[in-house]
Amino acid sequence: MNIQLLKTFCFVVETGSINQAAKSLYLSQPAITKQIHQIEAEYGALLFNRKDGRLILTDSGHVLYPFAKSIVQDYNQSKEAVIAKLKGYESTLKIGASLTIGEYLLPGLLGRFKHKNPDFRLSLYVENTPNVLELLLDDRIDLALVEGLVDNAKLSIEKVIEDELVLIHAPDHPWSLKNEVQIDEIAQERMIWREPSSGTRAIITNFLKEWGILGKIESYMELGSTQSIKSAVEAGLGISIVSRLTVAREIEQGFLHEKKIRDTVLKRNLWMVWKPKRFTKKSVQALMEYIRTKEKR
Q: How far is 196 from 57, CA to CA, in rounded Å?
């Protein structure tokens, strides 16, 4: 099987048009049509039907597409790995991290790792958990570190460290006079939290649901970053539950106060996630081992 035939097939599927595929591949439309006929002959099946001027996959086409895409991706990666070997492929390392980890945990960790491995070239991509996992699945990063829930059979996960979630409020909040609060008292306050796609938000809402108070929270505010949440809480706009990693300095300096929840400790795991491959770059292996030995103590 000619890899170019599979590549052309994928382009036609993804653009839905022979014309667009021809432009993307810098080929003529007759050349694209000929290649589609060749691949249909190879598999002995019709792969496309025409509908309203667009090409629509047949059932056979739907079966072939994920295999074709995987073959093309593996072929491109194999070329990249072999060609780039002489250009330091093994020393490049692309890391993806969810926001809390990328902003508060990784800078120090990667700084220490880079000090021990000065020849490695690091790139860091910070996104919310779903976006980071998408980058990993698309092979645009080598390794991911996330705090959100990971439920994908294509990915391998490993617990890195345990992180505590803490309840915070402004210094002049009425709770300042208390040593701790009851669970039900949270529902009486304005809750400030991240957008629904946030990994931290998902974990907190699961906690609140288990406690039976999620449905009782009527007043809340959604903000797009942990920094904005901290500023809003400090300004007295509400309370929040956040990672201790993100507020340790503000609590120490007195800008925010932490409040214990009676008989409750909130913890969540931070995960190292990777896509299993037959060949793993030396730089990836080195970072994974560094994290295991340094951050899991």
A: 34
pTM for the full model? Answer: 0.62
Q: Give the pair of three-digit tokens for residue 224.
A: 């797009």
CA 215 to mean position of chain CA atoms: 28
Over residues 79-105, the pLDDT tens digits come to 877 776 656 667 889 999 998 899 888
In the block, tokens 């106060």 appear at: 257
Number of alpha carbons in the 13 Å side-chain half-sphere of residue 46: 6
Q: Are strands 266-274 and 143-146 parallel, antiparallel or unpaired?
A: antiparallel
Pairing of strands 220-223, 191-194: parallel
- Over residues 192-239, the pLDDT tens digits come to 998 887 777 888 888 889 888 898 888 889 998 889 999 999 999 999
Could you tell me which of 2, 66, 5 has the C-alpha nearest to residue 33?
Answer: 5
Q: Measured between alpha carbons, how far is 158 from 274 in angstroms, rounded to an integer?
A: 9
Q: CA torsion sign, 165 to 163 to 158 to 222?
A: positive
3-state SS, one letter per residue, for the chain:
CCHHHHHHHHHHHHHCCHHHHHHHHCCCHHHHHHHHHHHHHHHCCCCEEEECCEEEECHHHHHHHHHHHHHHHHHHHHHHHHHHHHHCHHHEEEEEECHHHHHHHHHHHHHHHHHHCCCCEEEEEECCHHHHHHHHHCCCCCEEEECCCCCCCCCEEEEEEEEEEEEEECCCCHHHHCCEECHHHHCCCCEEEECCCCHHHHHHHHHHHHHCCHHHCCCEEEECCHHHHHHHHHCCCCEEEEEHHHHHHHHHHCCCEEEEECCECEEEEEEEEECCCCCCCHHHHHHHHHHHHHCCC
Give me the pLDDT at residue 156, please.
94
Per DSSP bridges, beta strands 257-261 and 180-181 are parallel
